[in-house]
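Lecture notes, continued. The same structure-token format from the folding unit now serves as the input rather than the output. Read the line below as a description of shape only.
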């Protein structure tokens, strides 16, 4: 689970983003979890009062149930940019404290279309078990060493 802000997922069709905001952008196509949204009257409070009011919202929820509802792969979204005070980080702290899980902010270089290389490696292992050749199998790897011909420094037979 991670946290981030809406613009990181502009027009993304990923199933990971979950809005926990009071209002979401019209273009947002992800899931919504209204139980974690602040009340409208809280939006104009100072940070100390906001924290107290938001903690009262969290106190009514079961962190195990919230985590199960959201899923370990969820990205909790609201409007504020990373580094600004926001309730998504309060949710992250609440889950970390109560469940012992890590809920970091997505790194600045994250892009929703970036492939998960660890997931791809797992797919390669599955492919091997099914008898298929993974993309890096001999004959499929464009970076595989070139078979050198005897007497050729480059490995190619040039005229």
């Amino acid at each position: 689970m991670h946290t981030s802000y809406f613009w990181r997922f502009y027009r993304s069709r990923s199933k990971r983003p979950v809005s926990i905001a009071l209002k979401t952008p019209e273009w947002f196509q992800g899931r919504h979890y209204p139980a974690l949204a602040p009340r409208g009257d809280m939006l104009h409070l100072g940070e100390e009062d906001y924290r107290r009011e938001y903690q009262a919202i969290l106190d009514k929820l079961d962190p195990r149930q919230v985590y199960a509802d959201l899923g370990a792969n969820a990205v909790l979204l609201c409007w504020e940019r990373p580094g600004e005070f926001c309730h998504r980080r309060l949710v992250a702290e609440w889950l970390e404290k109560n469940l012992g899980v890590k809920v970091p902010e997505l790194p600045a270089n994250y892009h929703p279309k970036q492939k998960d290389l660890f997931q791809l490696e797992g797919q390669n292992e599955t492919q091997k078990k099914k008898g298929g050749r993974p993309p890096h199998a001999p004959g499929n790897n464009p970076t595989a060493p070139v078979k050198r011909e005897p007497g050729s420094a480059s490995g190619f037979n040039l005229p």
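Point for the exam: The two ends are 59 Å apart (CA to CA).
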